[in-house]
Structure to design on (142 residues):
């Protein structure tokens, strides 16, 4: 990506999104709907190059569709942890929070759509004396 994104604090709005182990720091600013992603490796990507699957781009744009602001903001996000689907959902939550910071009236649209509620499902930890979180070692009487 040849273009370097400069974030102006006067016109940008920030939101943090989390999903599973993924954390996304998201800035939105007026633009034409471009998505810029900086991965944990330090490389910057165009949104479609990084996420590859169209359904992940649709998931990222869902807060804009709900608030009818699709194509009015550019997105700059830094992501780390987990996989790409979880990172896309973390960006989605971050965008929803940034839109709420931009216009508090959007809360009435985002909250019923479930975009301000963090999905708290995470991997269950492995317990001692077990194979995994729930699976146990086979028991033999003799």
């Amino acid at each position: 990506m040849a273009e370097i994104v400069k974030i102006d604090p006067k016109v940008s709005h920030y939101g943090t999104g989390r999903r599973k182990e993924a954390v996304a720091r998201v800035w939105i600013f007026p633009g034409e709907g471009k998505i810029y992603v900086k991965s944990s490796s330090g490389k910057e990507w165009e949104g479609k190059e990084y996420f590859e699957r169209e359904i992940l781009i649709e998931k990222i744009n869902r807060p804009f569709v709900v608030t009818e602001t699709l194509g009015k903001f550019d997105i700059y996000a830094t992501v780390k942890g987990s996989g790409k689907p979880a990172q896309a959902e973390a960006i989605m939550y971050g965008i929803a929070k940034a839109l709420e910071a931009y216009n508090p009236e959007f809360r009435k649209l985002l909250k019923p759509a479930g975009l301000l509620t963090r999905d708290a499902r995470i991997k269950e930890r492995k317990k001692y004396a077990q194979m995994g979180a729930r699976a146990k070692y086979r028991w033999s009487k003799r």
The chain has one domain: 1-142.
